[in-house]
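PROTOCOL LOG
Step 1. Enter all chains and additional molecules of the complex.
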Amino acid sequence: MVHSFLREVLRNLIRRPATIEYPKKETPVEPDFRGRHYPDLTKCIGCSLCALECPSNVITMKPIPKELADAAPPANRRRIYPSIRYFGCIFCYRCVTVCPVRAYVVSNEYRLASDKPLFSDELSLSTLRRRKGVGAQ
Amino acid sequence: MARTKIVEVPMALEIPVGPQHPALHEPLLIKLYVEGEVVTKVEVNTGYNHRGIEKLCERNNFYRNIFLCGRVCGICNTVHANCYVRAVEAILDVDPPPRAKYLRVLAMELERVHSHMLINAVMAEVLGYDTLFMTIMRDREAVMKAKEIVTGARVLADYMMVGGVRRDIDEVKKDRLLKLLDKIEERVRYYRKVFEDDPTIFKRLVDVGRLSPADIVSHSLVGPVARGSDVGTDVRFEDPHEAYPEIPVMKLIKRDEGDSWARMMVRWDEALVSIEASRYVLQHLPQGNAVPDERKLPRRFPPGEAFTRAEAPRGELTYYVLSDGKPTPYRVKIRTPSFNNIINGAFAFVGACIADVPAILVSFDPCISCMERVVVVDPETGSKRKLSLRELATRGVSR
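Step 2. Run joint prediction.
Step 3. Record the structure below.
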């Protein structure tokens, strides 16, 4: 049996490394891996259900900036939007599944390392900017 | 003056193993009192990883607790979530559809395979067999991939939901999973043979930490530790839940040697049974909807209580959930298998050599974060007492 394990060890010498050279090569993840998600503010109605249901309490409701407030849907009367603090997020996707209007955009983006705190604000507000840009044209 | 008498003075040396120690992967203090090489007394001190999850469960609502309970232990997260979800389902009187029951079994059995592979790899590492550790961990990646395909994440699955599971699998995923299972089975069979025949493992594990069936029963040890000593206890058979009674390939594994080696072999055999069960589940998946609409789940919880059991990879896991009709549970009590196995199993170290201590400890599959509980010790009198919930609540977090 020692010989059999030696064979395994020798086979490893001619095998390619099992580790992924991460920055050079991308880690293969599934298309439906639970990665970065953000609310699409053209759909969000500001109901705050995601903030109430978040198990790790990382979603806070913030007011939409004045210049973009008119692009939000009329159902969002309070003109507020959820902001996710990714550093505390556990990526359980509870917010995605409880959202009554299915406003969350999901992706398999897992590269979320940063030296500054990461929030979903910019991604969310860009959805409103895009709508406003399209409206202006 | 001639010597007429030799007086032998017994000297017990105290050796702390932990809280940080190369043989431990989580903080735990095992105080060994040794005479020469032989351990004469053992004290197990816990409390380095207490997170107050049971108390936190009383502040969160029932649905948020599903994700919190999944984080009691990273490796057995689907089993924890499943046990809690079944308790909530019993309070709500909800029965999940058959497809969801099968998918829950699939997730839990995949988890058992990776947990058993992990602890066998750790055992190889503790014995100084690092090459075997590396190769087992490399092949364990296939199980993690299978879990990623089923649940959407490698480790923390967040797969259980009241009334079903949180994502379904299609035919493409099923084919990929079956191929992965074939690959995993071949490797598990190979490693089982290595553990069965390798002289290094044999010398370090056989007849080390031998437990008799009477010891197991009197100390309430559970899981593979009990099954390695010929005590056939397995919640999947004692308390049939989910789709377990419908899977004919499930069988109870037990061995009668009772030593560390037997416990590791029980784990390999169980991993093979789990692979077989996963394959059966994939081939006989009932039709229907398994994913409930989480927006339409009940928001009001009737008063009631539920006690559920599940077979975690480490043994019997129990949850007690008490609802008083409010949005948050009144009490969630968790009893994890490591709590029994590590604290009650300390007697197994007595009589062993120092070098055998890590091997015995790892053969118990310790999960420290699972087993932390609050006991207040008065340093002046040395007395211990447990705090009531009310006292704990009024003391606040800072003390």
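Step 4. Note key features.
The mean pLDDT of chain A is 88.
Residues 87 and 115 of chain A are 11 Å apart (CA to CA).
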